[in-house]
Amino acid sequence: MQKIVVVGSLNMDIVIETPHMPKRGETISGKNINRVSGGKGANQAYALGKLGGDVTMIGAVGKDAAGDALLHNLRSVNVDVSGIRQIENETTGQAFITVDDDGDNSIIIIAGTNGLVTKELIDEKADIIKGGDIIIMQFEIPLDIVEYVKEMAVREGKTVIVDPAPAIPGLPEHFWNGIDYIKPNETELAILTEMNMKTREDLIKGARVMIDKGVKNVIVTLGKEGCLLVSRNKEEFYGPYQVKAVDTTAAGDSFTAAFALALSQGKPYGEAIMLGQKVSSVAVTRKGAQTSIPTMQEVQTIWKE
C-alpha cells in the first residue's frame, strides 16, 4: 500500500440542525447544536485512517481544547499527526454548519490556525511529503501554500489530488498545471470556470476547460446523480448509489479519501471512483463530519457485491 499525505485544514465544527435554511433577515428556531471534529483536510485524513489507509497529515491547530480534541480524534484512527503543528496563543480553525431537514448544508469557515500554514512549516515537514506517494490538498489553507506543495510534489513525482473547495474563480493556469486529479462538485466547477452549469454537456465543457489549464483528470461529483470523469481522451459517467441523505457535510471528503485509498492499493481509477461513491453514500446517511465516516467493513457490508 502506498503512503498518503494530506496537507490541509483542521476545524472544530459547530453543527446547527434547523428545519430549513434561514432567509436574509429571518430568525428561526434551531433543533440542535453539536461540536464535531472537522475541516476538509482532517476529514479526509480521518476517513483514510478509518478505512485502513497509511496516512500522515500536515497542518496547524492552536494549543487549545479544540486543537487537542482534533489531534486526539485523528490519532484514534491511526493517522500520523507528526506533521501537525500546535501554535501557542492562536485559535484552532472553526466551521459553523447549518443542516436542514433535507440533509443539505451551508458552511461558514473561520480560518484560525489554518491560515498559519506557511512555507516554513511545509519546508520543516518536507520529508513527509517526499516520503509519501499520494498528496491530497484542499482550499482551506492559503492558496500559495497549496501551489507550493503542489510544485514540490510534482517535482518529486507524486500523485497530486486537489479538492478545490471552497472554490475560487480566476486562478492562473500555472496553479493547475501538473495536478493529477481535481474533484469539484458541479457548483465548484461552475465557480472555477466562471461558466453556467445546467446540463451534463455543460459539465463536460467545464471539465475540459480545467484540462486545458493543465489538470490531467477532472472528477465532478453530482450528489444523488452520480459522478463524471473527464480527461484528455475520455468522458465517463458513473451512476449513483441511492440512499436517503440526512447530512451531506462530509460526503465530498469521504469520496476523496476513499478514491485516494483505492489508488494507493493499486486499483484502477474506475474502481477508485466507485469506492468513493460507496463510502460517501454511507456517510450522507449519518449526521456530522468525521462522525459520519464508515469503516471499510461497514461499507462492504452495506454494499455487498
Task: List the keywords.
single chain; 305 residues; alpha/beta; nine-stranded mixed β-sheet; four-stranded mixed β-sheet; 11 helices
Short description:
This protein has 305 residues and is α/β, with parallel strands linked by helices. Helices cover 36% and strands 25% of the residues.
Descriptive account of the structure:
It is a single chain. By secondary structure, this protein is of the alpha/beta class. The protein has helices spanning 40-51, 65-75, 119-124, 126-131, 143-155, 173-176, 186-193, 200-212, 251-264, 269-283, 296-302; strands spanning 3-7, 11-17, 32-38, 54-62, 80-87, 93-99, 105-110, 134-138, 159-163, 181-182, 217-221, 227-231, 234-238. The strands form two sheets. It has a nine-stranded mixed sheet with strand order 5-4-1-8-9-10-11-12-13, with helices on both faces. Strand 6 (93-99) and strand 7 (105-110) form a beta hairpin.
Main β-sheet description: 9 strands, mixed
C-alpha termini separation: 23 Å
Sum up the overall morphology in one term: globular
Class derived from helix and strand content? alpha/beta
Radius of gyration: 18 Å
